[in-house]
Design brief:
Distance between the termini: 41 Å
Strand order of the largest sheet: 6-7-8-3-9-10
CATH class of the largest domain: Alpha Beta
Order of helices and strands: EEEHEEHEHHHEHEHEEHHHH
CATH topology of the largest domain: Rossmann fold
Bound molecules: adenosine-5'-diphosphate, magnesium ion
Shape: globular
Helix content: 40-55%
Radius of gyration: 20 Å
CATH architecture of the largest domain: 3-Layer(aba) Sandwich
Strand content: 15-25%
Length: about 280
Amino acid sequence: MQPDLLTVRDLYYRYQDGTNALNGLNISVPVNCRAAILGANGAGKSTLFLHFNGLLRPLAGSVYYRGREVQYNKKALMNLRQRVGIVFQNPDHQLFSASVWQDISFGLMNQGCGKAEARMRVEAVGEQLGISELFFRPTHFLSVGQKKMVSLAGVLAMEPELIICDEPTAGLDPENAQLFMHVLNQLQQQGKTIVISTHDVNLAYQWADLVWLLHRGQVLAEGSPLEVFDQDELLKQAHLETPWLLEIWRVMEAQGLVSADMPPRSKAQLRQALHE
Ligand SMILES: Nc1ncnc2c1ncn2[C@@H]1O[C@H](COP(=O)(O)OP(=O)(O)O)[C@@H](O)[C@H]1O
Ligand SMILES: [Mg+2]
């Protein structure tokens, strides 16, 4: 049997000031899934992500990539970071070159990729993400939505297997948020594995195939969105609410207004259920 792509086992992490951010966390990410790490502010999502590509080293516990324990020497880390790309929540923490082109090609050049190959890859991701016309613009004048796409482009150019996006929709307007999630869907359909973090229960409910509910550096619940969001008590404990689609569905069900047995995962499915 194929091992999961990335597994963390009994993970503990403590910051220098003594904050215990991860407290015995277990997660296993299957190949090619769309997964969400869901948690309120401070739950430990970003800290966990920094362990996914070795930017942080566990205090205790281990990280496994394709069943192999992550090693923290330079060569092993470079290898891991080529496979596991991270899009930070704040694009200003990711982008620092003078132009978009330089930013997207930065990782490739750093890795010793030849100029011709780098050019080909940058052009391909530019086309795929619809940002080719931005190539020679200064990065710092772009909108947040554009910066976010450029961050993703830089990650994609490295051709990672696993793409991690920390709060991908934070700071984006609804249209740009939807566009970004649509692009992540396309990448998943092309074979990539995608893990996002979010405190947005509606986003996690509608987008993910797999959800981990995080609270104080521990997993409170995991499973399909329907399994996780059915656990009201745990959601409350994690300082989160029930997704609005599910909330409305329960009311309609109680009043006998709907007969379909599966709650809708999108507005379109809700509409369809109402017309059945
Ligand atoms: N650099 C840091 N130094 C000290 N504590 C930190 C640092 N970064 C995060 N923390 C703390 O670690 C915990 C988890 O934070 P974080 O991983 O950023 O959560 P999330 O991404 O879910 O909001 C919080 O209590 C936060 O205050
Ligand atoms: Mg965070």
